[in-house]
Write a structure and sequence with these properties.
alpha/beta; D-Maltodextrin-Binding Protein, domain 2; 2 domains; 5-stranded mixed beta sheet; 10 strands; globular
Length: about 325
């Protein structure tokens, strides 16, 4: 199913922002991701670096951030838009020296499960969990086996989330998904067709939070159909993406996943291990340290809503953080 970001719907996604906030302290600034070529020595090659972008605005912004800080660090860096993860991840394994790419801005839980199912089969027990550090450890182990190094995650996250209108939330005193369990009126959930069968969508909301839905409307995954249905009152709850720049402008409110139903899709740089060096790691980790979810929302608004150029938006953000 097509989604704004290239990840399988609700296989993994949101963790509360507070849970993600400790990642930088817990993981430190080490770049070692395990596996061949992950030693990170500064004597490693520092030739041309190609940064891949998935085919949506947020990824293009992140890829340009990475390329710009690498250029400042002295690398000959460029951005290469590709497409779905099924194309991007094999290209990262190859590296640009073999016709692939060297760096990809990824989403931690999604990337972990992509590698997990690729290695262990589609029915493999999940490696991603609501614990950011455990998921990061799993990602490093899986990535290291295919020559990819996972760097320090950011606290910034783009995750599947559930929203109502601000008016509905205010009228019914809703801040968290737990609050929604106490709502007794008509409650229609909107989302992609597979939502009623996916454990992190309708079944998970029912089992984890005890939410009783009176109906389901098949729409899209965080796209215009779902947001329109919310604003028109045709549904009361809809699947959205937490970093969507249009949520606030449309008068919507994301309800906090206070029981951590979803898994952490924090932003993380992934690097072909043959391209890893201390200088490259430091440059990319500087972006991770500065980027927040609020930043991501504002940046996405500038591109997706206001029509800004991802490269220019990225450059302006880096300048504002002293990283340009």
């Amino acid at each position: 199913m097509h989604m704004r970001k290239p990840r399988p719907f609700v296989l993994m996604s949101a963790v509360g922002l507070a849970a993600a906030a400790f990642v930088l302290a817990a993981c430190g600034s080490s770049s070692s991701g395990g596996g061949a070529g992950a030693s990170g020595g500064s004597a490693q090659p520092t030739g041309p670096i190609t940064v891949a972008a998935f085919n949506f605005g947020e990824s293009k912004i992140l890829a340009n951030m990475y390329a710009d800080v690498l250029k400042k660090a002295g690398f000959d860096a460029s951005v290469k838009p590709l497409g779905a993860r099924e194309i991007v991840e094999p290209a990262l394994e190859k590296g640009s020296a073999n016709g692939g790419v060297d760096v990809v801005p990824e989403y931690l839980a999604t990337f972990t499960e992509f590698l997990n199912t690729k290695e262990n089969g589609t029915n493999a027990p999940p490696k991603a969990t609501p614990d950011v550090n455990a998921t990061l450890a799993a990602a490093k182990d899986l990535a290291g086996k295919v020559g990819i190094t996972v760097l320090t995650p950011s606290t910034a996250a783009d995750e599947n989330a559930f929203a109502t209108t601000k008016d509905f939330a205010t009228k019914n005193n809703l801040t968290t998904l737990s609050d929604l369990a106490n709502y007794k009126g008509p409650l229609i959930l909107g989302g992609p067709p597979e939502c009623p069968k996916r454990p992190f969508c309708e079944p998970g909301l029912q089992q984890t939070y005890g939410i009783h839905f009176t109906g389901f409307t098949s729409l899209d995954a965080g796209g215009p159909l779902t947001k329109k249905a919310l604003t028109q009152g045709k549904i009361q709850v809809g699947l959205v993406f937490s970093s969507d720049g249009g949520i606030d402008a449309l008068g919507l409110k994301v309800l906090q996943d206070d029981k951590h139903l979803q898994n952490p899709d924090v932003i993380v740089a992934t690097v072909n291990s043959k391209s890893v060096s201390d200088k490259l790691t430091a440059a990319l980790n500087s972006v991770a340290a500065a980027l927040t979810t609020d930043d991501l929302i504002a940046l996405n608004k500038k591109v997706d809503i206001d029509g800004g150029d991802p490269a220019q938006v990225a450059q302006e953000w880096l300048a504002s953080k002293g990283l340009a």
